[in-house]
Specification:
This protein has ten helices and 15 strands. Strand 8, helix 6 and strand 9 form a beta-alpha-beta unit. The chain has a six-stranded mixed sheet with strand order 7-8-9-4-10-11, sandwiched between helices. Strands 1, 2, 3, 5 and 6 form a five-stranded antiparallel sheet that branches. It has a four-stranded antiparallel sheet with strand order 13-14-12-15, sandwiched between helices. Helix 4 packs antiparallel against helix 5.
Length: about 300
């Protein structure tokens, strides 16, 4: 594993009988960044995360987390002290109070950050005397996040962290992610909520039907992706505008809508050669990139 990466996989795969849940995923997650792992429901995000955490064994390929093999039992035990994980189900001990849950978790970590604990208790307005089982889904999510953040882990893996949160809770969660990353924690979170990723992510990985279909920095996406609206008196064949970098083409009447991930200048030149009467270029947001990527695949 390279020194700048905390997660690396090569052709990582998982099958359940004839069903391929994850198919040949090779990704690199850089340290001290926030990486968003996006995909539709059922894309294979949770399965990939469980393989990274050695909760399930891969059917093929390999992976390393913090330099440790995900296939090695001794390595997986060592990783538990360095990686914090918040699952989609936010599993906690329901019979404990919030205060007992925090005190119990704190006892396992000598470097527990009491300052983070106190700050998030105040921010999240968690009721210390309430039983965990009686908390709302959003409150259980906030408690699980507090337990993960206060550990000050090297790597924080979150599976759908905003599940159950209201808009204020989502805002608080995103602010906590940025603050945690600024203190040196690498964050890898799965989601199908595009606005969350667009707010905080440095890197974006998109999984679709078990395959990694996009792996790029958010800055590169913003700089490279463009939408071109081309208007013709006589509409040419779509193949005539299909240059390298074209992700999708949609023709309605005399208008072509083309989304590109690069070579926008080349396509503009091609459109003029084809006597386009109008060429309009606009930036493309992450939501549009996501939709075009999964629809195109």
């Amino acid at each position: 594993m390279t020194s700048t990466c905390v997660i690396e996989t090569h052709a990582l795969s998982k099958s359940y009988g004839r069903v391929e849940a994850v198919r040949g995923v090779s990704l690199s997650v850089k340290s001290h960044q926030i990486t968003a792992f996006l995909g539709l429901n059922g894309a294979g995000k949770s399965t990939t995360i469980k393989m990274l955490l050695s909760m399930i064994r891969p059917s093929g390929g390999s992976g390393q987390v913090l330099g440790k093999s995900i296939d090695d039992a001794k390595d997986s035990v060592h990783l538990r002290g360095q990686v914090a994980y918040v699952s989609e189900n936010k599993q906690l001990y329901g019979y404990m109070t919030v205060e007992q849950m925090i005190r119990f978790t704190r006892s396992f970590y000598s470097d527990w950050r009491v300052d983070i604990e106190r700050r998030l208790l105040s921010t999240y307005e968690l009721p210390l005397t309430r039983k965990v089982a009686s908390l709302s889904k959003g409150m259980r999510t906030k408690l699980a996040l507090l337990l993960a953040f206060a550990r000050q882990p090297k790597l924080l893996i979150l599976d759908e962290p905003s599940e159950g949160l209201d808009p204020l809770g989502i805002e608080q969660m995103l602010e906590s992610l940025v603050a945690q990353c600024s203190e040196g924690t690498t964050i890898f979170f799965s989601s199908h909520q595009i606005p969350e990723a667009e707010r905080v992510a440095d890197q974006v990985c998109i999984l679709h039907r078990g395959r990694l279909v996009l792996d790029s920095s958010l800055d590169d996406i913003r700089q490279s992706y463009r939408q071109l609206e081309l208007v013709f008196l006589t509409v040419p064949e779509e193949s005539s505008v299909r240059v390298a970098g074209v992700e999708s083409i949609r023709t309605v009447g005399r208008q072509m809508r083309v989304v590109v991930s690069g070579n926008a200048d080349l396509l503009i030149e091609r459109a003029h050669d084809l006597h386009a009467s109008s060429v309009e270029v606009t930036p493309v947001g992450l939501r549009e990139v996501f939709m075009e990527t999964v629809k195109g695949k």
